[in-house]
Automatic annotation (TrEMBL):
Similarity remark: Belongs to the NDK family.
InterPro entries found in the cross-reference section: Dpy-30_motif (IPR007858), NDK-like_dom (IPR034907), NDK-like_dom_sf (IPR036850)
Protein name: Nucleoside diphosphate kinase-like 5
Superkingdom of this protein's organism: Eukaryota
Length: 231
């Protein structure tokens, strides 16, 4: 039997692709409508964070624009009010989100892509088209950096398909959960949920290592670009 293209690594990666989307300050009040639009177009929202960037953080986020004429305006705009950072997932997510946003220039979006989000929520001012409402990563490496800028602890991996979810349950959950449920049926404790939770904690085959106390990591959960691994 030949292997169909739907099972290829390339197509699976495009199916599970992630990108970062930002609802900028000028569109912050329209967050709910924009999120509904995103969901209605087949995206999954995997993470959401509301934050107000400092000028230094905005400059770091848009460091690829450093030296260009619009860079100061961009930094000032992105630090002028609250923003919403979203991690989106969909097939061919990066390009699909860029298509949904529309052109970067609001005038162009309104003229040629009137149904795009930037045409609907962007603002044209005498200072130019800097208030285009939304941001999206340009390519995979940038998406990875920008996701970790806002969500430093997020693991960016492929989404599981239905058949893979079943395989995962059988391989990783059933060997521990099955005996736990059988023991629960035998013991019939007064508080079954608490009993099962304690059983699973004692018999966890993948016991995680304890991290540092919360006060030690509080300052680390800031918007920043992580240092690349040497390995």
């Amino acid at each position: 039997m030949s292997v169909g293209s739907s099972d290829s690594d390339e197509e699976f990666q495009s199916y599970s692709e992630r990108t970062l989307a930002i609802i900028k300050p000028e569109a912050y009040e329209d967050t709910e409508a924009i999120e509904n639009h995103i969901k209605n177009h087949g995206f999954s929202i995997l993470a959401k964070r509301e934050v107000r960037l400092t000028p230094e953080q905005a400059a770091e986020l848009y460091r690829g624009h450093y030296g260009r004429q619009h860079f100061p305006h961009l930094v000032a705009q992105m630090s002028s009010g609250p923003i919403v950072a979203l991690v989106l997932a969909a097939r061919n997510c990066i390009q699909k989100w860029r298509n949904l946003m529309g052109p970067a220039r609001v005038a162009e979006a309104q003229a040629y892509w009137p149904d795009s989000l930037r045409a609907c929520y962007g603002r044209r001012t005498k200072y130019g088209d800097y208030f285009n409402a939304l941001h999206g990563s340009k390519e995979h490496a940038e998406a990875l950096r920008e996701i970790h800028f806002f969500f430093p602890n997020m693991i960016v991996g492929p989404l599981l398909r239905h058949m893979q979810i079943n395989d995962y349950i059988q391989k990783h959950l059933t060997p521990t959960l099955g005996p736990g449920l059988a023991a629960l049926a035998r013991e019939r404790p007064a508080e079954p949920i608490l009993w099962l939770a304690q059983y699973l904690h004692r018999n966890n085959p993948n016991e995680p290592e304890m991290g540092p106390p919360s006060h030690e990591i509080r300052d680390d959960y800031r918007c920043h670009t992580p240092v690349p691994s040497e390995i």
